[in-house]
Amino acid sequence: MYSIELPKFLKTLEELETPEDKWLYFVKDAGSLEFKPVTLTSIPEIEHALDIANESGLTCHELEIQHKRRDFIIL
Is 61 part of any domain? Predict the structure, then answer.
Protein backbone atom coordinates (compact mmCIF):
# COMPACT_ATOMS: atom_id res chain seq x y z
CA MET A 1 0.00 0.00 0.00
CA TYR A 2 1.18 3.49 -0.85
CA SER A 3 0.46 6.80 0.74
CA ILE A 4 0.76 9.98 -1.29
CA GLU A 5 0.78 13.48 0.15
CA LEU A 6 -0.46 15.65 -2.70
CA PRO A 7 0.92 18.93 -1.29
CA LYS A 8 4.39 17.39 -1.59
CA PHE A 9 3.89 16.52 -5.26
CA LEU A 10 5.58 19.52 -6.85
CA LYS A 11 6.24 18.45 -10.45
CA THR A 12 5.30 20.89 -13.18
CA LEU A 13 3.63 19.92 -16.46
CA GLU A 14 7.03 19.84 -18.14
CA GLU A 15 8.39 17.42 -15.54
CA LEU A 16 5.64 14.80 -15.84
CA GLU A 17 7.04 11.55 -17.20
CA THR A 18 5.06 8.54 -16.03
CA PRO A 19 1.31 7.87 -16.14
CA GLU A 20 1.39 7.98 -12.34
CA ASP A 21 2.91 11.48 -12.43
CA LYS A 22 0.19 12.61 -14.82
CA TRP A 23 -2.62 11.19 -12.66
CA LEU A 24 -1.18 12.79 -9.52
CA TYR A 25 -0.93 16.13 -11.32
CA PHE A 26 -4.54 15.76 -12.47
CA VAL A 27 -5.82 14.94 -8.97
CA LYS A 28 -3.90 17.81 -7.43
CA ASP A 29 -4.34 20.53 -10.07
CA ALA A 30 -7.39 19.76 -12.25
CA GLY A 31 -9.46 22.41 -10.50
CA SER A 32 -7.03 25.19 -11.38
CA LEU A 33 -6.37 24.32 -15.03
CA GLU A 34 -7.61 26.77 -17.66
CA PHE A 35 -7.03 24.43 -20.61
CA LYS A 36 -6.38 20.74 -21.30
CA PRO A 37 -2.59 20.32 -21.41
CA VAL A 38 -1.27 18.07 -24.19
CA THR A 39 0.90 16.36 -21.59
CA LEU A 40 -2.23 15.09 -19.83
CA THR A 41 -4.41 14.44 -22.86
CA SER A 42 -1.89 11.91 -24.14
CA ILE A 43 -3.67 9.49 -21.79
CA PRO A 44 -7.29 9.08 -22.99
CA GLU A 45 -8.61 8.32 -19.50
CA ILE A 46 -7.15 11.55 -18.13
CA GLU A 47 -8.58 13.52 -21.06
CA HIS A 48 -12.01 12.05 -20.27
CA ALA A 49 -11.55 12.91 -16.57
CA LEU A 50 -10.64 16.49 -17.56
CA ASP A 51 -13.87 16.73 -19.58
CA ILE A 52 -15.88 15.52 -16.59
CA ALA A 53 -14.09 17.93 -14.24
CA ASN A 54 -14.78 20.81 -16.64
CA GLU A 55 -18.48 19.98 -16.88
CA SER A 56 -18.88 19.64 -13.11
CA GLY A 57 -18.36 23.38 -12.66
CA LEU A 58 -20.95 24.44 -15.22
CA THR A 59 -24.50 25.57 -14.56
CA CYS A 60 -27.36 23.59 -16.13
CA HIS A 61 -27.72 26.25 -18.83
CA GLU A 62 -23.98 26.27 -19.64
CA LEU A 63 -23.94 22.47 -19.72
CA GLU A 64 -26.88 22.40 -22.13
CA ILE A 65 -25.11 24.88 -24.44
CA GLN A 66 -21.91 22.85 -24.35
CA HIS A 67 -23.76 19.62 -25.21
CA LYS A 68 -25.55 21.34 -28.12
CA ARG A 69 -22.19 22.58 -29.45
CA ARG A 70 -20.71 19.09 -29.14
CA ASP A 71 -23.71 17.57 -30.96
CA PHE A 72 -23.42 20.19 -33.72
CA ILE A 73 -19.69 19.49 -34.17
CA ILE A 74 -20.25 15.71 -34.34
CA LEU A 75 -22.91 16.06 -37.03
Answer: yes
